[in-house]
Specification:
Layout: H1 15-31, E1 34-38, E2 41-45, E3 52-60, E4 63-71, E5 87-88, H2 93-96, E6 99-100
Antiparallel strand pairs: 1-2, 3-4, 5-6
Length: 106
């Protein structure tokens, strides 16, 4: 049995409605959860980590088209799947505890 699931919604909307949809998508990325629902059908995404990001813009006569594509792999929420943080110490920093993941010792 396949775990493939697809949700698609096509419509023509006014600018304010499209802005609300885009704001909701941005908020979903900020909170780490996006839920798409229509007529009893729903799909939940939990984006995180590195994301593939593509923007494509086209123009032909008076028509314009903008495609934005985002992709990622969802990580397991199981505690065993977490990678412990990396700690790197050099010289005198070892006495102060060193730096971890992008933190700088002052």
């Amino acid at each position: 049995m396949s775990d493939f699931k697809q949700f698609k919604y096509d419509s023509v909307q006014d600018m304010q409605t499209v802005i609300k949809y885009l704001d909701a998508i941005a908020e979903g990325f900020r909170t780490g959860e996006l839920t798409f629902t229509r007529e009893g059908e729903s799909m939940v995404f939990k984006p995180g980590g590195l994301l593939g990001f593509t923007v494509e813009a086209k123009s032909k006569g008076v028509r314009r088209k903008l495609k934005i594509s985002l992709g990622w792999k969802e990580q397991e929420t199981n505690g065993d799947a977490c990678v412990p943080p990396l700690h790197i110490q050099a010289g005198a920093a070892s006495a102060a505890g060193g730096a971890s993941r992008g933190e700088k010792d002052e």
